[in-house]
């Protein structure tokens, strides 16, 4: 790498490394889908955001909600990531059977579009969402001192629109599925 490239940090570095692996054909689970992937288990840890892309868990480097267009023309969420970038995110900070996720759209009124609309559609179609959370790493396994943990599949059960800090926000209620591996995804994006 050139000296200029060595100064690359954070998401920019993640993006470059992930792109090199993609071009080299090292990505796995390259078709976006709802549900589980073979070999990916609940509790698996990842040490940088780009790893989520490499393993197919979440293909968006910056946004917390990743979604696909379904065969019926609706958008559906495949995964959400709580990266602790904003105060509004997953409210519960410990693994639990149910959680509240605040929709996307920071510092403005949230609209029922994009990822928020896709989360609403998951309710209608009863499709689960992969949940990945960012935690401080207790063993300092990497230089950034954090890790992303795959928490498993959750079903979006309802949402409410609330006022928070003067803005309209969507709060989505999610419940953990009991048997994650039995979910058979028929919703894939080619």
Number of helices: 4
- CATH H-level superfamily: SRA-YDG
How many β-strand stretches?
7
> What multimeric state do the chains show?
single chain
Describe the structure.
It comes from Gossypium schwendimanii (Cotton). It is found in: Chromosome, Centromere; Nucleus. One of its GO terms (cellular component) is chromosome, centromeric region. Pfam families: SAD_SRA (PF02182). Its main location: nucleus. This protein is an alpha+beta fold. It has a single domain, classed as Roll (PUA domain-like), CATH 2.30.280. It has four helices and seven strands; from the N terminus they run ααβαβββαβββ. It has helices at residues 3-6, 10-23, 49-54, 114-125; strands at 45-46, 65-69, 75-82, 98-102, 128-136, 146-164, 167-176. Strands 1, 2, 3, 4, 5, 6 and 7 form a seven-stranded mixed β-sheet that branches. A hairpin with a 5-residue loop joins β2 and β3. The longest helix has 14 residues, at 10-23. It starts with a helix and ends in a 14-residue tail after the last strand.
Summarize this structure briefly:
The protein is of the alpha+beta class and 190 residues long.
Show the helix and strand layout.
Blueprint: H1 3-6, H2 10-23, E1 45-46, H3 49-54, E2 65-69, E3 75-82, E4 98-102, H4 114-125, E5 128-136, E6 146-164, E7 167-176
Parallel strand pairs: 3-5
Antiparallel strand pairs: 1-6, 2-3, 4-7, 5-6, 6-7
